[in-house]
Amino acid sequence: MSGRAKIEKLTHAWYGFALFSGLMSVLGGGFGPVSLVISIFFAVLSTAFSFFVTFLLGRALLHKSGLTRLVLLFLSAILGVVSVLASFKLVGRFFGDWSLGLLMQAAMSALVGYMQLRSFAVLRDRDVRAYFG
User: Fold this and answer.
1) Which among 51, 71, 66 is positioned nearest to 11, based on CA atoms?
2) Which of 14, 25, 99, 102 has fewest C-beta within 10 Å?
């Protein structure tokens, strides 16, 4: 698979993650009539913003922006480690409180960590580095 194809695949994965996190935001916002409307409104806004940022970053990477790649490498490494550590902390708190909400937060934090570390791996891939030449 070429470096360009790997970047496109990663960008599509981030679109899917944005959609999934928007859905999780609606589910975590409550099911009362007012809270549901507010949750849906803010989930749509945050998902649209995430799509826009993903589009801009994906386009910059496809146009071989070395600065964008460097900044994303740095951020994805740091945020990946922080997200994984946060998920471990939330799982530890879950065993003390036995709250399903904590378990869902831990799962979402682990998913964020996975996406960040996946981004780090793709951006460090040999084919992607060759694509940036």
Assistant:
1) 51
2) 99
Joined tokens for residue 98: 């036995």
Q: How far is CA 130 from CA 1, 22, 62, 127, in A?
A: 12, 34, 13, 5
Q: What is the pLDDT of residues 114-124, one digit of tens each?
A: 999 999 999 99
Question: What's the confidence (pLDDT) of residue 28?
Answer: 84
Q: Hunting for tokens 């928007």 — which residue is that? A: 22
Calculate the CA 78 to chain-centre distance.
Answer: 13
100-124 vs 3-28: helix crossing angle, rounded to 10: 170
Between CA 79 and CA 27 the distance in angstroms is 24
